[in-house]
Amino acid sequence: MKELFPRNGLPNIIQKLENGDTVTIVYFGGSNTRSEGYRVMTADWLREKYPKADIRSVNAGINGTGSDLGCARLETDVLRHRPDLVFVEFVGNDGGDPESKARIEGIVRQIRKRSRFTDILFVYTLKERDVALFQSGEYQKGALMQEEVADYYGIPSIHLGVAVSHLVSEGKLVFTSREDVSISGAVVFTHDSIHPTIPEGHQIYTDTITRSFEVIIELRGHQGRLVHHLPQNPLVPANPWEYATMLSLDSLTTFSAGWSYMTPDDFALVRVQLVVPRPMASSRSWRGYHSAV
Fold first, then answer.
1. What are φ and ψ of residue 123, in 5° steps?
2. 62: burial class by Cβ within 10 Å (0-12, 13-18, 19+)?
3. Angle, CA 224 vertex, CA 221 and CA 229 arms, to 5°
4. pLDDT of 63-104, one tens digit each?
């Protein structure tokens, strides 16, 4: 199985890194991104590889959240930093939700509309239940849906589960050990079947990403700056997720049926925000979402 699909690569950030410029990388995802794992390790690797560049890393990971909230918080957590590269990591929390393809596309289109020079990279983590799939030569359902988006927009993607599953098959890695103990001759990847150990488990993710970067750098050759393509029509017809945003409840004066305002004294959520997809010319009904942030 292939772990890297380079597609159009990462030409713009690589050029800036090679020039010794200031670059901003936003790591956007769930708990695996928020932790002090591959996010910190890959940024450190890039700093070592490009010592003349000023590399600024932004942690935009939120535990237990998927691409639905991601679409809504993109402006506040990602785009305002004017990123040169955005890591997108939501496969684990999205699972195989059929709507995730539309949501991931919504993220891509929001980024592309803001800047056609921002590079995007999809990274796909895995859970213990996914190992058997990889060993049989299959990717997760969620990753396959994101791959359709990656193909449509020329976005490179890295399947982090390929190396992990190989190590399991070779007896060099125990995916989950519930006890905080070392196992002779093998690395313990997680203690909960989801979150890699630090540094050992996340080092495997990091090694996969960094060797993929090396391939992307080599394939780039003498390619200069690239204006990324934004097709007029989305892959998912009438996709509303590129219009998702966050509104403070304080700015709302009226509520639709089923919604009411609750003060911190009424409810445990001290701060509540509403995710509102912009209405489209469609008969489809839209749902509201709230999230403690």
1. -125, 135
2. buried
3. 110
4. 999 999 999 999 999 999 999 999 999 999 999 999 999 999
Alpha helices in 22-98 (DSSP H): 31-34, 38-49, 67-77, 91-94
Query: What are the DSSP calls for 252-293, one per residue?
Result: -----TT-----TTTSS-SSEEEE-PPP-SSS-----EEEE-
293 to each of 76, 145, 244, how far by Cα in Å? 12, 28, 17
Give the strand pairing for 157-159 and 4-5: antiparallel
Q: For residue 21, what are its two tokens? A: 């410029």
Residues 226-254 have pLDDT tens digits of 999 999 999 999 999 999 998 776 777 77
Q: Which residues pair with 183 in a beta bridge?
A: 186
- DSSP string computed for 233-249: S-SSTT--GGG--EEEG
Q: Which tokens in the block code for residue 266?
A: 């009424």
Chain position carrying tokens 């020039």: 19
Non-local (6+) Cβ contacts of 253 within 8 A are none
Cα 124 from Cα 64, distance rounded (Å): 15
- Whole-angstrom Cα distance, residue 158 to residue 104? 15
